[in-house]
C-alpha cells in the first residue's frame, strides 16, 4: 500500500515581472502546494510507505518544522505513531500545530538541530524508523520534483536555485535531473549568513547533514553556494508577493534572493524552488509585514 495524501504535480509558474526585472527567464516551482504545505511530502510518502512495508510501528525525525508536519501527517495516514524532536523555539508554532492536529508527539530539547537529530537517531529503535533526509527513501521521493520540472519546461533549466538548510533537497534534485536527462543544470543552493539565528526558521540549521553531497553537486554542475543576508532574503520574499502574488515562508525566497545577487546570467532559463507555503510560518510573516 502506498501511503499518500496526493503529493506532487505542483505548478511551475512563469514569473513574468521578475523575469523582466532580472533579465532572465524565471520560473517558480511552487512546492508549498503539496498536502502539508511543503516539499517534504514527496519524500515522506516514500519513506513512510517503505517503513510500513518493513513492519514499522512508528517514525521519528528531528525537524525545524516542515519535516515534522509531513512526518506526522503521513504517519497518521498510515496508522502508525510519529515522534518529532525539535529544539526549544526552533520550529514555527503553525508547524507544531500541524503535528499535534494529526496526533504526532512533540519531543522538545535544548540545543541545536544537530542535538535534535542525535536524539532522533537514539529514538529510532524497536520498530521506529528515522525519516530525516538521511533516509534514502526521502531522497527518492523528493527527486520527482526534478522529473516534473523537465516535463513542464520541455527540458532542463540552465540554472536551479533552492534554499540550503540541511542539503537533502539539493541531493534529491541532482539525482532527479541525472536520472531524467543525464546531466545537471547549474546548481546554486542558497543559504543565509547567520544560519543559527536567521528569520527563516526552515533553514535554521548550523551543520548541514548533506554538506559533502552538496559540495559534490556544486562541482559537477559548475555552480556554487550563494550566501545572502536576512535583509536580502526578506526583500526577495516581499518581491515574490508583491510582483507575482506568491505567498511563501521566508526560507522559500532564498533562490530569488540569489538571482537578485546575480547568480544567473542574462537570458538564462532559471527555476527557483519555492519550498513552503507562507502559512507555514505566520509568526515570521507577522513580523515582516508590520
Q: What features would you highlight for this structure?
A:
290 residues; alpha/beta; Rossmann fold; 2 domains; 6-stranded mixed β-sheet; globular
Please give a structural write-up.
The chain is α/β, with parallel strands linked by helices and 290 residues long. The chain folds into two domains: 12-39 and 138-288, Rossmann fold; 40-136, Rossmann fold, CATH 3.40.50. It has twelve helices and ten strands. It has helices at residues 16-22, 40-53, 66-78, 93-101, 113-123, 136-142, 144-153, 168-181, 211-221, 230-244, 254-260, 282-288; strands spanning 12-14, 25-30, 58-62, 81-87, 105-109, 128-130, 159-163, 186-192, 226-228, 269-274. It has a six-stranded mixed beta sheet with strand order 1-2-10-7-8-9, sandwiched between helices. Strands 5-4-3-6 form a four-stranded parallel beta sheet, with helices on both faces. The N and C termini lie far apart (47 Å).
